[in-house]
Amino acid sequence: QRTLETFIDEYVQKRNDVKPATKEIWKQGKSGLLNFFGSERPLDQITAPMLLEPLRRVQRRGALRTGHDLREFAGQVFRYGIATGRCVGNPAAELRGALKPYTERHMAALLEPTSVGGLLRAIEQYAGQPVTRVALALSALLFQRPGNIRAMEWSEIDSKEAMWTIPSSKMKRTLNGKVNGRPHLVPLAPQAIALI
Predict the structure, then answer these.
(1) pLDDT: is 43 or 157 the higher one?
(2) Crossing angle of helices 20-37/64-83, nearest 10°?
(3) How confident is the model at residue 71 (pLDDT cuts 50, 70, 90)?
(4) Cα–Cα distance between 127 and 132 in angstroms, integer?
(5) Burial of 77 by CB count in 10 Å (0-12 exposed, 13-18 middle, 19+ buried)?
(6) Is 8 left (phi over 0), alpha (psi -120 to 50) or beta?
(7) What's the gap between Cα 132 and its chain centre?
């Protein structure tokens, strides 16, 4: 069959190497597209103006990035249809520039070396939970994701070699990278060893 739902399901099933976060975006994308077009709409009957309407609806409710994510997902499904010879055009590609722009906000960062010293002093003087203070100090010393620091296990620490070995399954990688990837090695400074 050449319905939108059939193509989405087939495309998602073939792409089992993606991150869980991407699968969640795709799940939302499928829901958004099917809510608007229905499950029986033939893929090759969807035109650029038709596709633009649900994308604009999403953006009107304030979800600018979601609108762009949905356009990207639709484009991937249409490209898959073209590649398999069951669709001749990609209306999502024709919508480039048609949506309100989304500007990604970056996280705050210390850019001045003198600011880093102030941060380290503030961590040292932190009067809250000792575990929180240690986690903050390790973050400043090791430059690892907070989730990795929270999930650190004793079996991953080699104090003799001063090395933290994070298994690939705990890293932010594709499913293939998690299964077949190498572990991430983090050298531990003497200060980190003392905190651990």
Answers:
(1) 157
(2) 90
(3) very high
(4) 10
(5) buried
(6) alpha
(7) 26
- Per DSSP, the chain holds a count of helices (H) and strands (E) of 9, 3
Separation between Cα atoms, residue 29 and residue 10, nearest integer Å: 14
Q: What is the mean pLDDT of residues 117-129?
A: 93
CB burial of 143-166 (b: ≥16 within 10 Å; e: otherwise) equals ebeeebbeebeeebbeeeeeebeb
- Measured in whole angstroms, the distance separating CA 170 from the mean position of its chain's CA atoms is 14
Per-residue pLDDT reduced to its tens digit, 138-184: 999 999 999 999 999 999 999 999 999 999 999 888 778 888 889 99
Which strand (E) or helix (H) includes residue 11?
A: helix 4-14
| Tokens representing residue 46 in the block | 């969807």
Q: Identify whether the C-beta of residue 68 lies closer than 8 Å to the C-beta of residue 102.
A: yes
Which residues face 158 on adjacent strands? Answer: 163
Please spell the DSSP secondary structure of 45-92, one letter per residue. Answer: G--HHHHHHHHHHHHHTT-HHHHHHHHHHHHHHHHHHHHTTS----TT
- What contacts 30, CB < 8 A, 6 or more positions away? 5, 8, 9, 12, 73
CA distance 176 to 21: 14
